[in-house]
C-alpha cells in the first residue's frame, strides 16, 4: 500500500482511504462506509 492510500479502522472494520495532496483531502470508500453504518 503506498503512502497516499491506507486502511483506517472503525469499530474493528476496515475503511479504505486515499489522500489527495493537491486538495489536501481524504477520500473514503463509500462501500466500506455503508458497510460500517449498516
TrEMBL record:
Please identify the protein, giving its name as recorded.
Answer: Prophage antirepressor
